[in-house]
Amino acid sequence: MRRTLATATEPDSLDIDYPPPLPEFDSKSSDTSSIPPHTHAVFVRPWEGISSMPELLAMVRGLERHYGRIREYGVMRDFDVNFQYLPYFWVNFEDPASFARVPETPTLLKLDVPRIDLARPGGIGLDDLQGLLQPEKYVSPEEAFDEAVPMVSAKATKKPQTVTVDIRVERAKIPFQLRGMRPHQTINRNFLGGFYGWGGFYQLPAPNAAHPSATMQMGVERRKPSMKDLRTQGRQETAEGAEEVEDVDSAERAPSPTDAVSWSNEPTIAASATEAAGPTQASDLSSVTDAATSAPTPTADAAEIPLIPEAEPATPRLSKREQILARARANARTPLPQLMLQPEEKRREEEEKEREEEDRVRTSVRERLWQMIGSKWS
């Protein structure tokens, strides 16, 4: 199966619309003079687009065999259909010699890409990427011809598993630089630990063998302090919210100043009542005092026993949702100030004034009409 064009043997004319440039390279802000030569990019556009990741990687390896080692490449996904690739990508070669092999005019290349059944259960797997993840070396036209001779008999005996596609290769009009993006610590914070514990696709070593990746261990150790700080910060926020709710509840349960004043005035009232009783009750009071003095005094042990205050129930720690609800209830209990009620009264007064003005205008129109006619209609 071959997907080719009739003009595959001739350089293509400039009749294809160029895709929009990358967002980070605006024509008004970019300065091509400050970009080193090794960052000059090559623009690649397959005629029938990119259907899968193995097909994209096969195109990249084919370009390496034609021109030389590729340092980086960039492809984007469709903005509307996320599971599809855009039908073009950029390539940066590792050395200037590889970039010099690219013709100055647009050229068509025929590359063999793997045939992938996208409708099979499970989709694309690691077996489909076998042999496509390692970089390829540059192969000269003479070496490519020598390699193609023994492949004729192999293709005759075995069903081909590749398909030939046409791609357009040209030197890009804009530079391309692949900028690495480091995600924030709070984004998918448990991925690093989960991936480290899962292990990936490799054979398990012996129990006494050293860990195969010291770099992964360094990343895990670097992640632990940041995760500890995040957990501490979350607990502090929860504790601060609980303290605010406790302050609101204690303010609601606190006694008013009027209660304290009435309690302090009770001994004064009792003393005035005693004085008003007069001398007739003096003898009774003296007898009561003598009886109180003759009563047995409490022992020292009984006097030293401290009074145990009643323990208040511990306030449970509230969640953020409960804290928000408690604040909302506290705000609902607070009456609206008079300043907020005044606009409603003003609005009613204005409506009454407008209604009176309409009645006055209606009456004046009726009076003028009667004057014009000369008499009132019955």
Number of helices: 11
Q: Helix-strand pattern, N to C?
A: EHEEHEHHEHHHHHHH
Structural class: alpha+beta
Beta fraction of the residues?
Answer: 5-15%
- Count the strands? 5
User: What gyration radius follows from the Cα positions, in whole Å?
Assistant: 45 Å
Low-confidence stretches: 1-14, 25-35, 152-157, 256-283, 298-303
DSSP helix fraction: 40-55%
Q: Could you give the distance between the termini?
A: 103 Å
Average pLDDT over all residues: 70
Largest beta sheet, briefly?
5 strands, antiparallel
What is the spatial order of strands in the main beta sheet?
2-3-1-5-4
Overall 3D shape: flat
Task: Label this structure with key terms.
378 residues, 11% strand, five-stranded antiparallel sheet, single chain, alpha+beta
Q: Could you explain the architecture of this structure?
A:
Residues 220-238 have a biased composition (Basic and acidic residues). Residues 1-36, 215-364 are annotated as: Disordered. Residues 289-303 have a biased composition (Low complexity). Residues 240-249 have a biased composition (Acidic residues). The protein is α+β, with helices and mostly antiparallel strands and 378 residues long. The protein has a domain at 41-150 and 158-171. It is built from 11 helices and 5 strands. The chain has a 5-stranded antiparallel sheet. Helix 6 runs parallel beside helix 10. The protein is flat. The model is unreliable at 1-14, 25-35, 152-157, 256-283 and 298-303 (pLDDT under 50).
